[in-house]
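Please fill in the sequence for the structure shown.

STRUCTURE ENCODING:
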């Protein structure tokens, strides 16, 4: 801060301290807000060793731990879901249903 700016700042501080300006006379500061959605916080618990590894990785990449974890999570969410796991589950359920129907029919025949 230059000398002129420093003197102006000191003058403003002195005026404020002497209450030469009433709060009602003070102009509000204009703040520009970008159109961004509000963000929410999420607390996540990590084992000490895992947190140490996260800190080391974040430091190596030159970012904070929170930014690193957030980036990884968003990248993972942007990936397409693995279809294989769902397909395998559906196929297994269909086979189980088919086996149950066969078992039910065979038990019905024994009872007759």
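FILLED IN BY: designer on duty
SEQUENCE:
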């Amino acid at each position: 801060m230059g000398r002129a700016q420093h003197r102006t700042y000191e003058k403003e501080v002195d005026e404020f301290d002497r209450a030469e300006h009433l709060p009602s006379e003070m102009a509000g500061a204009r703040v520009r807000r970008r159109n961004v959605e509000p963000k929410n916080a999420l607390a996540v618990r990590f084992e000490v060793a895992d947190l140490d590894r996260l800190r080391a990785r974040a430091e190596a990449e030159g970012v904070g731990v929170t930014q690193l974890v957030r980036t990884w999570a968003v990248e993972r969410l942007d990936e397409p879901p693995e279809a294989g796991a769902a397909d395998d589950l559906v196929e297994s359920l269909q086979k189980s249903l088919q086996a149950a129907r066969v078992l039910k029919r065979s038990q019905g025949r024994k009872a007759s």
